[in-house]
Specification:
- This is Tyr recombinase domain-containing protein.
- The protein is mainly alpha-helical and 430 residues long.
- The chain has three domains: 77 residues, no CATH class; 82 residues, DNA polymerase, domain 1 (Orthogonal Bundle), CATH 1.10.150; 204 residues, Intergrase catalytic core (hpI Integrase, Chain A).
- It is 44% helix and 10% strand.
- It has 17 helices and ten strands.
- Strand 6 and strand 7 form a beta hairpin.
- Helix 9 crosses helix 13, helix 10 crosses helix 12 and helix 10 crosses helix 14.
- The relative contact order is 0.07.
């Protein structure tokens, strides 16, 4: 082990001091006349090596304790280095934007395309304009909380933004303790969570669906009425279905990948929305006929191209396509659907209270609500419905996708107004 330097801490020569050593280092003829003095006014410099072996120094002026402060600092730092608790204070001086660039380079590889774009959008719109130029060590809890409360509208926006901040600053702690504590860890979401009335979340009735399907172009009736309405598959799953995923003997379609939009560009995603999305969807006779019609019309190839093979979608393998042969996407699905809903007199425009953006009801996604309710009313077990829909949480199948059956309200009204013989009606109990 190298011997510790005998002149550590040492005094640094000063251009304003008039002691003998400072006058020698900075002669009067080149640095101006100074009054001679015996004691030096220069700062005391404490030198040390960090855990990587890099030599670092810190100066202490006479006003800030001089030699005594430098020696105390050296004792503290040497102990921290020896006990592996040392933290370089300069590492926390990195700006939030620069740290985001380092963190995001890895983080974006962990999540799906839609999740990545949502996080990047929150960073670009909310976090970077406010905190991008701040240093990590200058962030404080109360400033973050006031910003979250007063400048971010909507429960979902506050919640997701907080999650990004917590993860970003947690990574700074793990990376050699750029900061010692996470000021975002205890942020509270203060916005009120908006919930829809059950009637607003219900899917269209069978009569409304019949009107919508009748207004659709004949080609899209195959896609919506004959297939999506029968399977409850997500639009991206329908668009991404390929010939090699079809088991013609069992009449089952395996969900293995989806098509998603990424900044206006359609691409393949090698996994569904969640791991529960990997599943086998049994096809009804109507859905099977729709698949056979598409196979006869487009003659999709049975090849199995790899996801990530350049940027090619390999449209020649897709079971379902647009009328002109292009891959299905949110635009060429939404246009005919919304037009048919308008013609059927079913459309309803609702403004989201959190975002202020208009939303249209119904959406093709409402098929999942309808299919779940039909399965529930037919007595299909919840766990089976969950697997069929590719839902990760069973509670979502029960509380979000399942709706009351037709005639349920009349049945309840009849039960409550029953005035038959003893024991036939409802009675109060203590």
């Amino acid at each position: 082990m190298p011997r510790r330097a005998a002149n550590n801490p040492r005094q640094v020569r000063s251009k304003t001091c008039g002691c003998k050593l400072c006058l020698t280092a900075y002669p009067p003829e080149s640095h101006g006349e100074r009054k001679p003095r015996r004691d030096c006014l220069g700062a005391w410099q404490a030198r040390y090596r960090d855990p990587t072996g890099r030599q670092t120094a810190k100066n202490f002026t006479i006003a800030k304790g001089g030699k005594a402060a430098a020696e105390a600092f050296l004792d503290e730092v040497r102990t921290a280095v020896r006990q592996r608790t040392y933290r370089d204070p300069d590492r926390g001086k990195i700006t939030v934007t620069k740290w985001w660039d380092e963190w995001w380079d890895v983080e974006q590889k962990k999540v799906a395309t839609t999740t990545r774009n949502r996080k990047l959008g929150l960073w670009t719109k909310y976090i970077r304009p406010k905190w991008g130029d701040w240093r990590l060590l200058d962030l404080e809890y109360m400033a973050l909380q006031k910003w979250l409360t007063h400048e971010l509208k909507g429960w979902e926006t506050q919640k997701k933004t907080k999650e990004i901040l917590v993860a970003l600053l947690d990574a700074a702690i793990k990376d050699g303790e750029r900061i010692t504590t996470n000021p975002a860890a205890h942020l509270e979401v203060t916005a009120t969570r908006q919930t829809k009335h059950p009637d607003d979340a219900k899917p269209p009735t069978a009569e409304q669906y019949a009107l919508i399907h009748a207004a659709l172009p004949v080609y899209y009736q195959r896609v919506f009425r004959d297939f999506a309405y029968e399977t409850g598959m997500r639009p991206g799953e329908v668009a991404g279905a390929r010939r090699h995923c079809l088991d013609e003997e069992e009449r089952v379609l395996y969900i293995k990948e989806i098509l998603v939009f990424d900044s206006g560009r359609l691409l393949r995603q090698e996994r569904p929305k969640t791991e529960a999305g990997y599943r086998a969807v049994p096809l009804t006779p109507t859905a099977w006929d729709a698949v056979q019609w598409m196979i006869e019309h487009w003659k999709p190839a049975r090849t199995r191209s790899a996801v990530g093979d350049g940027t090619a979608l390999h449209v020649e393998e897709l079971l379902f396509r647009g009328p002109r042969g292009a891959a299905l996407n949110i635009n060429n699905l939404r246009r005919p659907w919304r037009k048919a809903c308008d013609q059927a007199g079913v459309s309803r425009k609702v403004v989201n209270p959190e975002t202020g953006q208009p939303e249209w009801w119904p959406r093709p996604y409402e098929y999942r609500h309808d299919v779940t309710s039909r399965l529930h009313h037919q007595g299909v077990k919840e766990v089976d419905a969950q697997r069929f829909l590719g839902q990760k949480r069973g509670a979502k199948v029960t509380w979000i996708y399942t709706h009351e059956s037709e005639g349920a309200r009349e049945a309840v009204r009849a039960a409550l107004t029953s005035t038959g013989g003893a024991g036939s009606g409802l009675r109060a109990v203590e």
